[in-house]
Amino acid sequence: MLKTKLSLLLLLAASCGAFGQATSAARPNSATMVQIINHKIDSVTQVIKITSDAGNLIRLYMMRGIAESALKHTDEAVGDFTKALSLHKPSNIFSAEIYLYRGDLYERTRNYQKCIDDYREALKFFGSNPSVASRLYTSIGYCQLQLKNYDEAVKADSIAMVNNPNSPFPEANMGFAYLHTRKYQQAADAFTAALYRYHTSNKKLLSDIVRARADAERKLKKNLDALNDYSMAINLDPDNRLAHWNKAACYNQNGDYQLADEEYTKAITYYKGDSLNLARLYDDRAVMELDEMKYAKSLQDDSIAMLYDSKYNEIYWHLPQAYAQNADFDKSVIAYNRALDVYRDNKNAVALIYDGIADEYYFLGKYDSVINACNQAIAINGQLWSSYLSRGRAYLKEDKKDLAMADFNKVASEDTAKGSYEYSFALFYIGQPDKAIQTMQSNIIATTNPALVVTHYYNLACLLSLMNKPDEAAAYLKKCIDKGYNKKYVLTDPDLENLRNSAQFKEAIGNN
User: What is the C-alpha to C-alpha distance for residues 404 and 397, in angstroms, rounded to an integer?
Assistant: First the structure.
């Protein structure tokens, strides 16, 4: 009777082993294999019913669990492994193997904490075997990574590397953990080490690691290195959708808008049916179009994003900005008020929204509303210098000079950055125009982002207009217009009022 049991177990083990092979030309088709394994499961079940010896039952439950696992009957397999473990003795080597099998099932079904627990039990048996210990610690590191326990992931992967310094997997896991914890240089170094050790033809795996290294490089502002890596990732796997998406973001940061647009458009094709990510993609492209000064397109893309996911908060942040830059100030105020409802639990965001509302009311000439909105913003964030500047300018319009000067002096004395447009305008209002111009010009020289440079040009044009320097103001304004700045916005900006009827202004906007 015992001989029959063991023969049956050996036959089942051989069948399960063959199930994992893909090279045999004589291999039965999948339907036949399923039938064979089901027959073996039934046979082992019959033997279990007549077996009382704990040692034999451990083997039987383990082998039936392996067969159930091969058929992807996860619950049944876990149940058999658990029954086997309930019979085990601490020194029984079968227990170690069962922990391995059950841990693997937990990992594949994303039950990561239980996987970690089983692999830690297995390490009690295999801890002295460097090769096996390295694989187990690597898997524990991966599970910790999925659970967002990034420090624990790094600890486990570090032990895996001690056991097998030549394995690329712990380095790759550590790279992702560092990426999530914003340790970008360590992430890039870990990915580089992993790629050096990889000897695999799995191009998709290599592509994703190269893409991740590019993400780290982009965060480090090494955009050329990042673009090279994104291109390499796409060469390895042309369908690496994250590489396309993040390459678009990298081009956007460089001001290479046409190339960014092509990559965003390509990335969109990979997310059909994925409403959440489509909303994010369209919104990302809409933000880029704001930098491009393509406000109608930005509004269109954010409208599409909202159709895909109306709960994606970023849309409500960007829509009012697009309306404002398109000189649709009433629509911008409406959109900002919708954003207030969306961000009502985020105080810092609410302060910035009120600050934006104040800007639009200033263009609309509603100075009491400007002051009220600024008061709301400042009550939340007492260091929001743009709100002090806007409120001071509104006070000036209402001929409340003392209140205005108090706000301007506060910005000039307490804005420690000493380089913002708010600081420059405050300097002008308190009687330091030369220093104000110098500060703005320094910003232009120090800025490499094309969209931000145009913004600096525009602010300097406004400042020079307020100083009644039409020739200089018009020169900077023309730079903005030549770069595509919205003429509709220019025609409504009260800061350009001193320039509006001059020949220089008409020439700058092309209205000769």
Answer: 9
* CA atoms 27, 28, 34, 38: torsion sign: negative
Find the distance separating the first CA and the last CA of the chain, reported in whole Å. 106
Query: Distance between CA 236 and CA 211 in Å, rounded?
Result: 10
Q: Dihedral of the CA atoms 301, 302, 306, 311 (nearest 10)?
A: 140
How far apart, in Å, are the Cα atoms of 352 and each of 330, 361, 395, 426?
18, 14, 20, 19
Single out the residue of 292, 344, 294 nearest to residue 316, CA to CA. Answer: 344
Burial class (CB within 10 angstroms; exposed 0-12, middle 13-18, buried 19+) of 200: exposed
What are the helix (H) ranges across 326-415? 329-342, 347-363, 367-380, 385-397, 401-414
| Amino acid 146: pLDDT | 96
Q: What is the pLDDT of residue 8?
A: 29
Tokens coding 469? 């320097």
How far from the centroid of its chain's Cα atoms is residue 466's Cα? 42
Here the contacts of 389-395 (C-beta below 8 Å, separation 24 or greater) are 389/422, 389/425, 389/426, 390/355, 390/358, 390/359, 390/362, 391/358, 392/426, 392/429, 393/362, 393/429, 394/358, 394/362, 394/367, 394/368, 394/370, 395/371
* Residue 325 structure tokens: 């830059």
Best CA proximity match to 68, nearest among 95, 88, 44: 44
Place of tokens 């109306």: 310
Ranges in the chain, pLDDT < 70? 1-29, 89-92, 511-512
Query: What integer pLDDT is reported at residue 142 of this predicted model?
Result: 95
Half-sphere exposure of 270 (CA within 13 A, CB side): 15
Average pLDDT, the chain: 89
Instruction: Determine the Cα–Cα distance for residues 194 and 214; give it in Å rounded to an integer.
Output: 14
Q: How many residues can be counted in the chain?
A: 512
**Buried b vs exposed e over 253-288: b needs ≥16 C-beta within 10 Å?**
bbbbbebbbebbebbbeebeeeeebbbbbbbbbbbb
Q: Quick one: tokens of 40?
A: 């073996």
Instruction: Give the H or E element holding residue 19.
Output: helix 2-19
Cα gap 153→148, rounded to integer Å: 8
Q: What is the pTM of this model?
A: 0.77
